[in-house]
Amino acid sequence: MTETLTRADSADAAAGPVRAVPVRRPGQRVTAVLVTFLLVFLLEGWITNPRMQWGTVGEFLFSPVIMEGLRTTLLLTALAMALGIAGGVLLAVLRMSANPVLSRLSWGYIWLFRGTPLLVQLLFWYFLSAIVPTIGLGIPWGPTFVEADTNVLITQLTAAVLGLGLHEAAYMAEIVRAGITSVDDGQSEAAQALGMSRGQTLRRIVLPQALRIIIPPTGNQAISMLKTTSLVFAIAVPELLTSIQGIYSRNFQQVPLLVVACFWYLVATSVLNVGQYYLERRFGRGASRDLPPTPLQRLRAAARNHRTARNHREEKAR
Prior knowledge:
Elements: H1 2-15, H2 26-47, H3 54-60, H4 64-95, H5 100-115, H6 118-126, E1 134-138, E2 144-149, H7 150-153, H8 156-181, H9 185-193, H10 198-228, H11 240-251, H12 254-283, H13 295-317
Antiparallel strand pairs: 1-2
């Protein structure tokens, strides 16, 4: 038996190293060619269509009105997400509270704001003055110290931020709660054994570890919020889509101007995607040892390899 194995090993060694040949998959190549042809055909028909009026697209792409609408869209996104994240953290903590009143209150808020359409909430805040003409600060069923007109306090922009932010808080509460529950209970027990209070444990131990779970869906929510701001056209806030609607209602060039809107939405969401990518890498370093290199790291590695190869050739030439 030993002699047979020795002969087989000697034969393999004499034959040389095994050359791996990839399996041929002609079906994949045919499918790729067909899909590429279909894509080129559709793009060519879309780009060369004279009814697209690309001159109109170029005319209004950097129009001051469009740029002002884009700035309003980005401002609404930032303010609404800030309100939503702050409210979501508070609601998640209350939902997990041992106090049944606070827990049920948080559950009721989430149930209400997730169960009603966002457009309805935006209209409710916009028409709040119809049922609450004035907003005051004072003692319940007692004297009012400060009072103001609701129409003055709740402007179009304020109504948009309240509607978007309070609606977002209900979704962020569940995201934050999922992140907090993903942290092992032993972390909290160890912190309490060191004498930390419940608030210190949450701020210093639990939330930093929960960010690895919280950040990816939060980035998705921010991207979704950027596009959801288009709903504020219902209360006439001059964001990107509202500004574009105002233009094409005068010149009747709907499709070219909608192409302009799609372009700027794609640019803004692409920037948010890049930010989300690097944030996930930043807070996911402890969970994964072998993170894929970033495009910048690949570029630096390619430049370093090129310099090394060039130095090697120069040394060999000498």
